[in-house]
TrEMBL record:
Belongs to the short-chain dehydrogenases/reductases (SDR) family. It comes from Candidatus Yanofskybacteria bacterium RIFOXYD1_FULL_42_10. One of its GO terms (molecular function) is oxidoreductase activity, acting on the CH-OH group of donors, NAD or NADP as acceptor. Keywords: Oxidoreductase. This is Short-chain dehydrogenase. Transmembrane segments: none annotated.
Length: 280
């Protein structure tokens, strides 16, 4: 390998850096944790769940430095305590992935996925808070510690969604309405994910002079063992240019790019990885 190639690959190296992934015990969050750890980072999971996925346990046994902190990202006190414990144990984080957030899957009840006119205030509050309030509290604390420790480079990645860029295609869910279920992809998720994009742009402008880059990852739908009905998968795939849903691992390289110095001149941007969903 020549010197130029070595320099390129070195930009993806996260050795010596500390990263936080909110919701890191979940399907995609655990993939992000794995990716950052393989790149050499110390990775802290902030989650209300404490059970490690099996593949992360295997990585810990092999010596990767992955830590877990019980944190409710919608609670200011919990977020502050999580950061305090992390900084005391390993130092100041310079990478933050705001990944955690509630959604309602296509197989869940009508009470969470029903028509707009009956969508509950409680569900709205829970979804909006888990995405926007959580990202706000986490990012604010990240900035505070970043400045206190006189860091020079940082990266925040906000996880949005195709439904933050474009309206949900409600025809994808028509199969449920045809069988008598009054089902719609609900409003709060789209609003929350669109808000993450707006938050990204605001925070990028604010953080630029401090050396903190802020970008959004816009993923598409993921094929996973989550009880997805075959009818939903078929309808979703028809709408996607690549004619498949994403695998959980399909976003890992994008995460590494945004977290690392490989994207050193990129901020305030949306990196769309959706199989062509939003290109139509």
């Amino acid at each position: 390998m020549n010197t130029q190639n070595v320099q390129i690959f070195t930009k993806f190296d996260l050795t010596g850096r500390t990263a936080i992934v909110t919701g890191g015990m979940g399907l995609l969050g655990a993939e992000y944790v794995k990716t950052l750890a393989l790149a050499g980072a110390i990775v802290a999971i902030f989650d209300i769940q404490s059970k490690f996925p099996q593949h992360l346990l295997a990585m810990i046994e092999k010596g990767h430095d992955i830590k877990s902190f019980m944190v409710d990202i919608t609670n200011q006190g919990s977020v502050g305590q999580g950061f305090d414990e992390l900084v005391e144990s390993v130092g100041t984080p310079t990478i933050l992935i705001n990944n955690a957030g509630l959604d309602s899957h296509p197989h869940t009840s009508i009470s969470q996925n029903g028509p707009f006119g009956t969508y509950s205030e409680e569900t709205w509050d829970a979804v909006i808070d888990s995405h926007l309030k959580g990202a706000f509290l986490m990012s604010r604390e990240f900035f505070r510690w970043f400045m206190l420790s006189h860091q020079s480079r940082g990266s925040i990645i906000n996880i949005s969604s195709t439904y933050g860029l474009v309206s949900p295609d409600q025809s994808v869910y028509e199969y449920r309405r045809k069988r008598g279920e009054d089902f719609f992809k609900p409003v709060a998720y789209s609003v929350a994910k669109a808000g993450m994009i707006g938050f990204t742009k605001w925070l990028a402008e604010y953080g630029g002079p401090m050396g903190i880059r802020v970008n959004a990852l816009v993923p598409g739908g993921v094929l996973a063992n989550q009880g997805l009905e075959q009818e939903f998968i078929e309808q979703y795939v028809k709408r996607t240019m690549l004619k498949r849903m994403a695998l959980p691992s399909d976003y890992n390289e994008a995460i590494l790019f945004l977290a690392s110095d490989a994207s050193a001149y990129m901020t305030g941007a949306n990196l769309v990885v959706d199989g062509g969903w939003t290109a139509r």
